[in-house]
Automatic annotation (TrEMBL):
The keyword DNA-binding applies. Keywords: DNA-binding. This is TetR/AcrR family transcriptional regulator. Residues 50-69 bind DNA. It comes from Streptomyces klenkii. Coiled coil: none annotated. One of its GO terms (molecular function) is DNA-binding transcription factor activity. PANTHER family: HTH-TYPE TRANSCRIPTIONAL REGULATOR RUTR (PTHR30055), TRANSCRIPTIONAL REGULATORY PROTEIN (PTHR30055:SF235). Residues 27-87 form the HTH tetR-type domain. Residues 1-29 are annotated as: Disordered.
C-alpha cells in the first residue's frame, strides 16, 4: 500500500519557485523595495540594475516591485528623488536672506552637499547613471527641472529668471563635475572656502540680475 503524500491525498505538488512568505508583501515592503532600489542603482548603475535584483534585495516578488513603482524608470525616479533630496532644499536657501548674498548662499549650499561624503556618494551614483543612459538622464532632467530649477526661478523676481537660474546651475554643476566627479587638479584639492569665494560672484551675477 502506497503511503499518502504529505498534505493529504490528492493534494497537488507545487511546482516552480516557492511562494514568498507573507512578510515579503506585508508592512514595510514598499520601503524595503525603495531601499533595495537605491542600493542596486548605486552599485550597478541604471543600465545594469534590474527589477529582479531589486526584488531579491527587498525579499519580495518582482511583481510587487511593479505593483508599487511600475517599470524600471519609475522606480529609478523614486530612488533618485530620495538620494537627491538634500539638493532639493536649495530654493529654501534662496529665501533665507537678502539678494546681495544670494550667490554665496547658493554656492556654499550646493558645494556643501557635495562635500558631505554621504550625500556625495549618492550624487555620484545619480550622475554616473545619467551620463551613461539617456532614459536615466531624462528622468534626472525632469526631476531637476520640476523640483529644483522651476522653484529657484520662482524665487528670483528678476527678468529671464528661468534662464538665469539655469546659467547659475551650469556654473555650479560644472564646478561639481570637475571637482568631485572628474577630480581635476588643482580644483579637486582646493580649499572649499577658496572655491566658494571664486565661484559665488559669477553665480550672483546670474541670479541677482546684474548681468
Amino acid at each position: 500500500m502506497t503511503a499518502a503524500a504529505p498534505g493529504g491525498a490528492g493534494t497537488p505538488r507545487r511546482r516552480g519557485r516557492p511562494a514568498r512568505t507573507d512578510a515579503g508583501s506585508g508592512p514595510g515592503a514598499r520601503e524595503r523595495i525603495l531601499a533595495a532600489a537605491r542600493a542596486e542603482f548605486a552599485a550597478r548603475g541604471y543600465d545594469r540594475a534590474s527589477i529582479r535584483a531589486i526584488a531579491k534585495g527587498a525579499d519580495v516578488d518582482p511583481a510587487l516591485v511593479h505593483h508599487y513603482y511600475g517599470p524600471k524608470e519609475q522606480i529609478f525616479a523614486a530612488a533618485i528623488e530620495t538620494d537627491f533630496a538634500p539638493a532639493l532644499e536649495a530654493p529654501d536657501v534662496i529665501q533665507a536672506g537678502g539678494p546681495d548674498t544670494l550667490g554665496e548662499r547658493l554656492t556654499r549650499f550646493i558645494l556643501g552637499v557635495w562635500e558631505d561624503p554621504a550625500t556625495r556618494e549618492q550624487l555620484l551614483a545619480i550622475v554616473r547613471s545619467a551620463v551613461a543612459n539617456e532614459t536615466a538622464a531624462a528622468v534626472f532632467r525632469d526631476l531637476v527641472t520640476s523640483r529644483l530649477m522651476t522653484r529657484i526661478a520662482g524665487e528670483l523676481g528678476v527678468p529671464d529668471a528661468r534662464l538665469r537660474s539655469e546659467l547659475a546651475a551650469a556654473n555650479l554643476v560644472g564646478v561639481a563635475m570637475l571637482r568631485y566627479v572628474i577630480k581635476v587638479e588643482p580644483l579637486a584639492s582646493a580649499d572649499v572656502e577658496q572655491v566658494v569665494a571664486m565661484v559665488a560672484p559669477a553665480v550672483q551675477r546670474h541670479l541677482a540680475g546684474d548681468a
